[in-house]
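Before relying on records like the one below, remember that each one covers exactly one chain. Contacts with other chains, cofactors or solvent are not represented anywhere in the record.
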Amino acid sequence: MSGSAAGGSVERVRAALLAAGHPDTITAFPAGTRTAADAAAAVGCDVAQIAKSIVFKAGGRAAVIITSGANRVDTARAEAALGCKLGRADADWVRVTTGFAVGGVAPVGHLAPPLILLDEDLLALDPVWAAAGSPSHVFRTSAEELRRMTGAAVAVVRVG
């Protein structure tokens, strides 16, 4: 993704945060925050505190599962909570549908409103950090704020 495109997606997240009454807590980490482990190392928090946005196809719409960085998504649990079948989304589809590159998918600021599900495990953690539109930007928030801003349903989505 070019610098200007990444800058545009970060600004889209910034605008969404401010529109939702959330402070601008976006921080850039030049070393990168592409994976939950990278983000946790950059921020200096536990990997569980990284709120990673995993994108699936729900028909032609994106379904975003915001899960703890320590968890893997159980697709069957997520499907049951959302009430629809989920399919694998490749990087190109994610970029076109959400406006974000994989590794930088934010829970807010999508090009079109996605279905959103929040991992119940995140509610026990504060603060949490989420991608802010690029693989080197994150923002500090709480799971409750993510739920409020996105309107996400809350469910147990972890494998195991």
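The first strand starts at residue 26 and ends at 28.
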